[in-house]
Amino acid sequence: MTMSSEPSVSSPGLLSRLSRARPTKPGEIYGVPGHGETLWLSVGTILVLLVIWWAVTTLGWVKPLFVPSPQSIVAKFLDVLQNGFTGAPLWEHIWISTARVFGAFLLACVIGVPLGLAMGMSPVIRGIVDPPIEFYRPIPPLAYLPLMIIWFGIGETSKVLLIFLSVFAPVALGARAGVRSAAIEQIHAAYSFGATRWQVLRQVILPAALPEILTAMRIGIGFGWTTLVAAEMVAATKGIGYMVLSASQFLQTPTVIMGIIIIAAIAYAFDMLMRYVERRLVPWKGKM
Amino acid sequence: MGLEIQTASVVFPGSHGREPVEALHEIDLTIGEGDFVVALGASGCGKSTLLNLIAGFLGPTGGQILLDGAEVQGPGADRAVVFQKHALLPWLNVLDNVVFGLKLRGTPDAERKRVAGEFIDLLGLSGFEKSPVYMLSGGMQQRVGIARALTCDPKVLLMDEPLGALDALTREKAQELILRIWKETHKSVFFITHSVEEALFMGTHLIVMSPRPGRISHRFELPFSHRFLDGVSARDVKASHDFIEMREEVLKIIFADEEDAA
Questions:
Q1: What is the DSSP-derived secondary structure letter of residue A24?
Q2: What angle do CA A112, B92, A286 make, to 5 degrees?
Q3: What are the structural domains, with CATH classification, of chain A?
Q4: How far apart are CA A29 and CA A37, in angstroms?
Q5: Do B83 and A185 touch (CB under 8 A)?
Q6: Looking at the complex, does the CB of residue B90 fall below 8 Å from at least one CB of chain A?
Q7: pTM of the model
């Protein structure tokens, strides 16, 4: 009798595979969840989606008003790149939106990180600051946009402030949670070497909180881009969000999709940058 | 002189309607200069609470702790602590971890390097100065922790199960290393362990603690570490008749406590 006489299972389905153990592979740790390469699958997904998009529009199954073809979006991009949109060149729309988001983001970090650390360190500050943050945090920015405009007018202040508020809460709460990352042994060790409270904050708690702060910043800027379109809804004459909104009013679907892709590209590029910063700044993350 | 603990008690207030817990009951203990005092006992007997008292991380609710006649008010560099784990700073390399205490005190750079070099040599960490600590093995991390505590030249070295997370072989080597360093530096040591064999081998004095309330139930003076430092091999010390006899005696005490608790 040899092994080959076993009944062979023809093309096992996903369910039957899940209900059965898998053989070990040489040189690979067994059972690590989700282990394996994903790059080519992801590239494949994007290509398949593009091909479907292209096929559906080229075969005329959907009207261009609803889903314009990929080619027309590239054409639109080149057109706007050359001739601008509503009197302003494309780079100016991109620049003004980026400045609004990053201005608000920097402001939120400069205020939110120290305030979050202070909240983590001091029950007094936590007691005072926690209720207002927790009150406004779950409210959609669109809901308090009218208030911003009534209070701060239709200029840059209300736009940046709206984005600032959406970034501020996650950054401050992330920094606050980060304070707890330092192990009590690390804090005790520093004190037992005669450290002052300031030294413990500066040299133990802050570095230990850095991974969480960086993660909070990544989440925060995501919220910032989400709020951009809302911020540019009222009385904006430039900006990617404005471009998308005004194009939608004239049913210029290609411009809408182009604007969305530009926002996604900038946000993705920045996230890549943050991941790089994370690898450089906190290579020890999750290792001790 | 040295460290004196006088009728120190710790009562944790009962929260959520529970009874207050007496973690330590009127502890009297003297750690003389150059003594190696080992605390042994079942879980929950208050060994770590006692160490926290000496370190100044916890204030006694009764009695007092005196270091060279002065009352201990809080943590300080004269009582450096070596923790079981999680106490190194992963964003610093080995050298920066070792000099961490000196840096906090503003010791000049040259002096810092000299002292660090000395203890890095002593603990066999030469060549790893620039390594990130999170890349080291558990045994090496623990040696960094000991070097860091020694650089501050403490009067008392407090060790809270420093070898508890190490594998058996590394652990025995570390025991010998700590004894040699103790001999060389003449520090007073307060050492917590769960291992009876480790306690007997390392200490000059042994206190066995019992739970509910945490108290010192037995005290022994030990000859074994001196034998090792006089040149008898660790294995021979641990295999000698009186060592084994004593090990069984102490084990009986601890098991009796465990059964009382159960």
A1: P
A2: 65
A3: 94-239+274-281 (1.10.3720.10)
A4: 15
A5: yes
A6: yes
A7: 0.81
